TrEMBL record:
Belongs to the SIMIBI class G3E GTPase family. ZNG1 subfamily. It comes from the Eukaryota. Signal peptide: none annotated. The lineage of its organism: Eukaryota, Sar, Alveolata, Dinophyceae, Suessiales. Residues 358-426 are annotated as: Disordered. Keywords: Chaperone, Hydrolase, Nucleotide-binding. It catalyses: GTP + H2O = GDP + phosphate + H(+). SUPFAM superfamilies: Hypothetical protein YjiA, C-terminal domain, P-loop containing nucleoside triphosphate hydrolases. InterPro entries: CobW-likC_sf, CobW-like_C, CobW/HypB/UreG_nucleotide-bd, P-loop_NTPase, Zinc-reg_GTPase_activator. This is COBW domain-containing protein 1 (Cobalamin synthase W domain-containing protein 1). Residues 426-522 form the CobW C-terminal domain. Residues 371-395 have a biased composition (Basic and acidic residues). Gene3D superfamilies: CobW-like, C-terminal domain, P-loop containing nucleotide triphosphate hydrolases.
Length: 523
């Protein structure tokens, strides 16, 4: 029991019986835990003290609420509602009980604050049918026996993998198997025809939450691998991560790895698709962070070179790793940190910028592994057709689209571009400029980029490091389609040049238009 003090009142709280209280509040005996309030406090001060107490306790107990008191009275005279502006001493003496009634609403969940590098990594493993994804997955599980790895099988089609067969093949190596299967042809058709940038995979989110629940119950786990079917577009999976705060609070998307079959990938890239659909093989190449050029033992060296150049035309940023039966260094398959904004300042995009400046009439094939854009500057808008019928993986051949005359592979070698109807489907451009961005103009620029009219192109992804005027930190941003995120990274060094670096990945981008508006943002 709190002893009374001459300069304070000790008052007992009573919640009106009609109020439904969280267990953490209902269990408190307020006679043993009275409120101590200064003599010069107002009734409103007492209300706020109770509100803060309730919100603090429920937050700490994992059942947060938002609480606002509308009515307070002295239980000795419950017919009189008190004026919030009155002094508490006008209505109470030490030992009195005050009654309260107000709105108590469920608040947002309290998410753990975990540094990105300490979150559990999630790898998306994708590739067309027969490319070698499952072989690669088994290789990873065999080689990393010291790690506890959970596997999510993304079964999306007419025929489901038999759960018992899957478990028999992989249970000895994988810590947990989660199978997702809609099993309905009509749903699959609707999914493929829908606008990919507007889709969230709720089944994936629930699968990840079920794994986290097991971790909470004591399961030991080091990594999660999502193996998609050949018909899966990676964009909705990436978008699911970026829009599920409870998942990203504990998991980090390490990267998207695409397995490309050197013998058959060109055929898949040339597949015709119905209007409004996407070429999944094309999307898998365009949006990945690392490419495994697999089954090299089944093609000639010239065929391998032709395939590699075609992949590079589509994706200018992902590292291409040669492989046979998925055998590569294990280090190539983990710790990519491709979607970790805190790592963006360590990514060198000057190489792409040099290409952009060297080939001002063109550019080079694009990729979505380095996207981003901060919501604080109006966010990344819907860089797609407003009717949601835009084919985000395709564009018609356009000789003036700005697609370049050359490109560089990950080693800096320059290769002659091959003319094809795919050349304008995905473009990329990197801009680098010293100086400081004006916040107001930057806001307008981002809004313009988010609302590009069709004739200016379609932006898939943005990734950048901004030098904003009067802002001491490097500001990083990341966006995939219409979903964006932003954060401050490390501070600018005392003598460090303030240089803004930004990469755009999209389709048939009007590069001159984007560069002009970019330059207009600087002081």
């Amino acid at each position: 029991m709190v002893q009374p003090m001459a300069d304070r009142l000790n008052l007992i709280c009573f919640f009106h019986p009609s109020m439904k209280l969280p267990n953490s509040i209902a269990e408190i005996n307020f006679k043993e835990h009275p409120f101590s309030i200064p003599l010069d406090a107002t009734v409103m001060d007492l209300m706020e003290q109770v509100e803060e107490m309730v919100e603090g306790i429920t937050r700490d107990c994992g059942e947060p609420v938002s609480f606002q008191i509308q009515v307070m009275w002295n239980t000795k005279n419950n017919k009189k509602a008190l004026n919030p502006g009155d002094k508490v001493t006008e209505h109470f003496v030490t030992g009195d009980t005050f009654g309260i009634h107000g709105d108590m609403l469920a608040g947002p969940p309290t998410l753990p604050q975990i540094p990105e590098e300490q979150k559990m990594p999630v790898t998306i493993l994708t590739g067309f049918l027969g490319a070698g994804k499952t072989t690669l997955l088994n290789y990873i599980l065999e080689e990393q026996t010291e790690k506890k790895i959970a596997v999510i099988e993304n079964e999306f089609g007419e025929v489901s993998i038999d759960d018992s067969l899957l478990m028999k093949e992989k249970i000895a190596m994988a810590e947990k198997i989660v199978v997702m299967d809609n099993g309905v042809t009509s749903k699959m058709s609707n999914f493929r025809r829908g606008c990919m940038c507007c889709t969230i995979r709720s089944d994936l989110a629930e699968g990840l939450r079920s794994i986290l629940k097991e971790v909470d119950n004591g399961a030991k786990l080091d990594q999660i691998i999502i193996e998609t079917t050949g018909m899966a577009d990676p964009v909705p999976i990436v978008r699911t991560f970026m829009t599920s705060e409870d998942i990203t609070a504990r998991l980090r998307l390490d990267g998207v790895i695409t397995v490309a079959d050197a013998k058959n990938i060109l055929k898949r890239l040339d597949d015709e698709v119905e209007e409004g659909a996407v070429n999944e093989a094309y999307q898998q190449v365009a949006f990945c962070d690392k490419l495994l050029l697999n089954k090299l033992d089944l093609v000639t060296s010239e065929e391998a070179i032709k395939t590699k150049e075609r992949l590079r035309d589509i994706n200018a940023f992902a590292k291409i790793v040669p492989s046979v039966r998925g055998r590569v260094k294990i280090s190539e398959l983990s710790n990519l940190r491709a979607h970790d904004m805190t790592n963006f300042v360590n990514v060198e995009i000057e190489k792409e910028a040099a290409l952009e400046e060297d080939h001002k009439d063109g550019g080079h094939g694009g990729h979505g592994g380095h996207g981003g854009h901060e919501g604080g500057h109006h966010g990344h808008g819907e860089g797609h057709d407003p009717n949601c019928t835009e084919d985000h993986g395709h564009a018609e051949t356009n000789g003036n689209s700005g697609h370049g005359h050359g490109h560089s592979d990950e080693h800096g070698h320059v290769a002659k571009k091959q003319k094809s109807r795919h050349d304008s489907r995905v473009n990329s451009m990197a801009l680098v400029r010293e100086g400081e961005l004006l916040p107001s103009k930057l806001s307008n620029f981002m809004q313009t980029m988010g609302q590009l009219p069709p004739e200016r192109g379609t932006i898939f992804r943005i990734k950048g490091i901004l030098a904003v005027k009067n802002h001491p930190f490097k500001h990083v941003f990341h966006a995939v389609m219409d979903v964006s995120d932003e954060a401050d990274a490390e501070p600018w060094g005392k003598d460090e040049k303030r240089i803004t670096k930004i990469v755009f990945i999209g389709k048939a981008l009007d590069k001159a238009f984007i560069r002009e508006h970019f330059d207009a943002c600087f002081a």
